[in-house]
Amino acid sequence: MGTHHQTIWRTNRLNHMNLIQPHPSLEVKDIEMIRPMHWLALAWKDMERCPTAGVTHGLILAIIGGGLFWFARQDFWWIAAMLSACMIVAPLLAMGLYDISRRLERNEEATLADAFRIWTCGDKRLIQFGLLLALSSAGWLVCSAALIQWMLPASVHTPADFIRLVVLQPEFGLFEVWVLMSALIAAPMYASTLVTIPLLMDHPTLTVQQAVLTSWRVVAMNPFAMACWAGILCLFTALGIGSAFLGLLGVVPMLGHASWHAYRDLVVYDPTVH
Known about the structure:
The chain is mainly α. It has 13 helices and two strands; from the N terminus they run αβααααααααααααβ.
């Protein structure tokens, strides 16, 4: 009986280890640092071919982001929480744009209805990954609040308080530490999300662990190109939000379509490898 139990335990352990091993059919490519500009060019072509879906996605995020910002405009921590939530929702919302780009590259018809239909797929892997993103964002918010409240003699309540007490603080330390901590938390989140959602959409048998691990392999193989892409994402997002969220009408479809082309460029599927 003991031998039988040990055999079952070893089998379960091997099955679990296989779930977190790199998928053998997925190959990560090495690209040039300026390659992200090519993704933006391809995204522009997708926007021209199917503009309605892109603008609609941008409008939804602009309304959500602008509405939440207006609701919480006098409370800095609510604004931080809302913006973090938007950053989490954006990759999931972009699934519709990923599907549009996938259809266009196959020369299939792509409509707004197709983009919305992907949200109703009920894929438990995407739900699981979304919950992981939510927990990560909540962790950043809690750590950020704890750091600021611990290092400051006064409390931060409004955006004006944050600018006055943290950003414009004459003494070196708090703002720089806050930025560094935010970057340390954002970096693994970025590496975990880079190509994960397109991978899960494109490969129904892939596990969340395998998709995340592949995303990390992409960053490890192309650190400079992925740093460049991260800078582009931050710049476009800042422009979209800084324009009273109106810029998101163009930024969201541009980055959504480009992210799909990034995935296609960075990860190659070889069905002959098992």
